[in-house]
Amino acid sequence: MMWKRVRHDVSRVAKDGAFACPRTGAACLFCLGFLMLSLFLLAGCTRSSHLDVKIGVAMPTREFQRWNQDGDNLKNLLEKDGYLVELEYADNKPELQIEQIHRMIEDGCRVIVIASVDTGALGDVLHEVESAGCRIIAYDRLIMDTDNVDYYATFDNLGVGIMMAEHIEEKLELQEGKGPYYVEFFAGGPDDSNSLFLWEGSMEVLQPYLDSGQLVVKSGEADLKSCAIDHWSVEKSRERMGRILREHYSDGSSLDAVLCASDSVAFGVLQALREAEYRSKRGKMPLLTGQDAEKRIVKAIMSGEQSMSIFKDTRLLAQQVVSMVNSIMAGGEPETNDIGNYNNGVKILPTFLVRPELIDAQNYRKVLFGSGYYNEKDFEE
Fold first, then answer.
1. CB atoms within 10 A of CB 37
2. Cα distance between residue 374 and residue 361, in whole Å
3. 73, 318 in Cβ contact below 8 A?
4. Comparing C-alpha atoms, which of 169, 182, 175 is closest to residue 286?
5. Is domain 157-312 classified as CATH 3.40.50.2300?
């Protein structure tokens, strides 16, 4: 898979009224009743106007917690607004997702929301949308190399990479000149454009320390291609971390930080560290980053095994996408807050960025439990 550079320069944001009637008594009640009936019928007509409108939602996999949450959030919110929803998961198989999207187009879906398995593999099937009158919203993964994508809704993934790297910078006191420290990198899937954004954001912060020798990659695997983990796989991350520990850290060298591009990747790294009994032998775990605030990783943060994750409130992203769908169906232009920085190789897509938030041992209760994203009882032993 050839890496494609995507131009991206996101800043670090990111009366009460009374019914008046000239009549009184029963006549007034009649008028009031008539008004209420009219409003009820009007509301019913507005809702039923969506009942024959199909919206497709194409998610990449059920393997990870977040995509199940994304799919459920979108389906529930769209159905609440009166749409018929076709929700599909592609088991991380590009060819299956292409079949699913093709079927959604044939079924008359007016809008399809796509979190792609392979961001560069959908060009051919999306050629069908123009003649079908279907609109496409890319969801959290930028669909590449096609003109047949209308909008993009995502989190600030460059910003996520920056936040991860700044966490390592702060905890290792790199700005104060501390070091050298050993660090390893675990990137996202090579078929996901977000991996490049995350890598660029991280390197924006950490490359100067790599150049100065304050950070050292003992494995020598320090480029995006070498560090990429297919499909953000837990098992592939575990296997790679196990190999790196055996080949480069069996001499007692201390691994100080592992920059992991997601919680699924971090969980694989964490499994390898547990298998190597790293914490008991070295007295502490290396700094581990992640994103998505998965339940298993929140538990690892609570136990001190992982130092942080990036919370991406998928409820907010789903709400924004449903707002986009409603605007499209009303013949309007959806709200966006970035109109110049996301180029998919063919055109620049109008984009809405949702701002993520870092969680660690100090703030996870307030951010996750306080917002109602998780129930604290689910984390009690």
1. 10
2. 15
3. yes
4. 182
5. yes
